[in-house]
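re the bet — no i am not wrong, look at it urself. input seq straight from the record:
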Amino acid sequence: MDKYNIIKIHDLVSTNDYALSLRSSEFFHEGLVIVSDFQQKGRGQRGASWESERGKNLILSVVIESRISISKQFDISKIASLSVIDCLFKLGVDSNIKWPNDILVRSNKIAGVLVDNVISQDQVAYSVVGIGLNVNQLNFDTYNPLATSLKLELKKHFSLEQVQNYLLSSLENRIKSYRNKEVLDVKYLDVLFQKDKVSCFEANSIKFNGIIRGVTERGRLIVETGDLINNFDLKDIKMLF
């Protein structure tokens, strides 16, 4: 990635949707960044919404020229999630990835990643990586998991521009390493929330205990239950807290 082209818009329905709306324009290329103070309908996993007070948190979407096989599209989620982990570490916060790409501090959610891929033939041509990072917000509605922010964790106010610079730098470094053939799996699994620990899950309205053993190349969660090893898509399983 040579450089970022940052477009700041104070109020948007969704930064990912806005970036995707520019697909046929000259602006839609790697490095395009859409930043907003507020999203009217920020999207999360499973169709969930993303809560954020106006001007308190970092909300952005980045266009990446992926050019990878569809079978490897989960690599983009790994890159994005690890970039947030790297950014938070630089700021003094240790965090984990709750599969597939929520970022937790202990068991509280501080960030989320949403990837929209543009498919061309048998390839992911572009990826729009949306990241919401809680920075200065102090009060949140009750969600599962509960939310936290940098200010709540470190007891100080942050410059959104500084956090944005850290995040974009971390993303650039991760993309560069990936294109230099660095393997993401070890680091991703190293920070995967509850890996090798007994957790409670729900699938097909049935609750059960299992142990996360990893993630497949296509991003399915590998869960051990007794003598069985099962792979689950996001829509098929939910971790209970």
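see?? The mean pLDDT is 93. told u. also DSSP finds five helices and 13 strands in the chain. so pay up
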